[in-house]
């Protein structure tokens, strides 16, 4: 059955990464309106919007097709980019910049897996922007690949839910999910990351150094999104989060490094650490550090800035205990019941919460170590996440 306009609007609305992608490309370009548009031979419809200039377009809103450059992109299937329309011999005469008062513009086509044209990822601004850095276009193209892959997965998921009759079909769908994320997304992202690193070594002026640093942070953020989705896929396949358990004496140092990294990323929060791990722990140090990082970032994102975050790690009566506590709005009982499920964001829409996988992955890491992750939250005592792992639990886990 052919997909309708509403099908595509609903599909984009279901994709948790789209809002982050729009913010990433806005930061990468300095442009203040970004959107994902569905473009056909009859209409231009906004599916998702990030608007800092009060352009007035909301998801579901339409522009007259003939007034858009996206209609031309639908026909020639190539990106369009310019940074100063009024100074450009061609674009100063084009009707679209004049109609909408645009000086800077970038739009890259989004193609479905079968090669059909879906629409565009675009950014506009009434002010000029420097868009001659090739990494900007590469970032847009990487983002359109991510949107296309997630659209494909969304369509596969809903088609599978409607038509799936046996476990073999479900296994095939899950294998495709991992293949798309692992191959189609990570490879181009690695190329972009390496290119950004090489640019950071070049003798650039302060403005371009800042641009390269923003690009590098965007690459790091997208790498984290992909890694989170891969961990989700592995756990949903029934394999759980993979851990490599070894007897490790460096867990305290690794936790201290995590604390410093989160401090650097959230300088407005005071983090008080009490780390006392004076014996070896049978664990996957990288995964437990990931668990702590997820808890700390969650506390920094949702906790009150005026109050410190307390992190502690100790071995009490042969039990490894790691806790992160902060004050702020308490978590409601209904939210606590689903807090460790994937894609759950207690405070959506703040632009800070990622895909809502951090606590789910932390809980899966705890389970993979034979431990537990719990949360307590109240107006009087604040919110406290606690990971507990009996020291012999990891031995049992390693043997199974």
TrEMBL record:
GO molecular function (one): kinase activity
Known catalytic reactions: ATP + protein L-histidine = ADP + protein N-phospho-L-histidine
Record keyword Kinase present: yes
Domain of life from the UniProt record: Bacteria
Keywords carried by this UniProt record: Kinase, Phosphoprotein, Transferase, Two-component regulatory system
CDD domains according to UniProt: HATPase (cd00075), HisKA (cd00082)
Keyword match Transferase: yes
Domain Histidine kinase residues, every copy: 180-393
The EC number(s) this enzyme carries: 2.7.13.3
InterPro entries, alphabetized: GAF, GAF-like_dom_sf, HATPase_C_sf, HATPase_dom, His_kinase_dom, HisK_dim/P_dom, HisK_dim/P_sf, Sensor_HK_Regulatory
PANTHER family: HISTIDINE KINASE 1 (PTHR43711:SF1), TWO-COMPONENT HISTIDINE KINASE (PTHR43711)
Protein name as catalogued: histidine kinase
């Amino acid at each position: 059955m052919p997909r309708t306009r509403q099908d595509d609007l609903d599909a984009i609305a279901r994709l948790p990464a789209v809002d982050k992608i729009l913010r990433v490309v806005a930061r990468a370009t300095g442009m203040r309106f970004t959107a994902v548009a569905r473009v056909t031979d009859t209409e231009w419809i906004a599916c998702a919007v990030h608007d800092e200039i009060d352009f007035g377009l909301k998801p579901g809103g339409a522009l007259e097709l003939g007034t858009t450059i996206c209609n031309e992109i639908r026909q020639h299937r190539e990106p369009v980019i310019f940074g100063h329309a009024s100074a450009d011999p061609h674009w100063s005469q084009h009707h679209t910049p004049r109609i909408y008062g645009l000086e800077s513009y970038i739009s890259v086509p989004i193609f479905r897996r079968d090669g059909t044209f879906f629409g565009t990822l675009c950014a506009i601004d009434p002010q000029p922007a420097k868009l001659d850095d090739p990494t900007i276009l590469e970032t847009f193209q990487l983002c359109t690949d991510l949107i296309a892959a997630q659209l494909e997965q969304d369509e596969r998921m809903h088609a599978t839910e409607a038509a799936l009759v046996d476990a073999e079909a479900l296994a095939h769908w899950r294998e495709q999910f991992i293949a798309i994320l692992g191959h189609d997304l990570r490879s181009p992202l690695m190329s972009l990351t390496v290119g950004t690193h090489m640019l950071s070594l070049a003798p650039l002026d302060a403005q371009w150094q800042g641009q390269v640093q923003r690009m590098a942070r965007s690459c790091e953020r997208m790498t984290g999104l992909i890694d989170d989705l891969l961990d989700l896929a592995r756990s949903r396949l029934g394999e759980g989060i993979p851990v490599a358990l070894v007897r490790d004496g460096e867990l305290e140092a690794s936790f201290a490094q995590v604390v410093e990294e989160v401090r650097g990323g959230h300088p407005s929060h005071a983090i008080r650490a009490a780390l006392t791990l004076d014996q070896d722990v049978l664990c996957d140090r990288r995964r437990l550090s990931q668990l702590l990082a997820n808890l700390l970032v969650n506390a920094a994102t949702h906790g009150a800035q005026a109050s410190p975050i307390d992190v502690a790690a100790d071995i009490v009566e042969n039990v490894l205990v790691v806790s992160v506590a902060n004050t702020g709005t308490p978590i409601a009982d209904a939210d606590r019941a689903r807090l460790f499920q994937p894609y759950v964001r207690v405070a959506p829409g703040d632009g800070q919460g990622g895909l809502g996988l951090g606590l789910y992955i932390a809980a899966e890491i705890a389970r993979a170590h034979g431990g537990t992750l719990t949360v307590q939250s109240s107006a009087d005592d604040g919110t406290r996440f606690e990971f507990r792992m009996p020291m012999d639990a990891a031995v049992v886990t390693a043997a199974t």
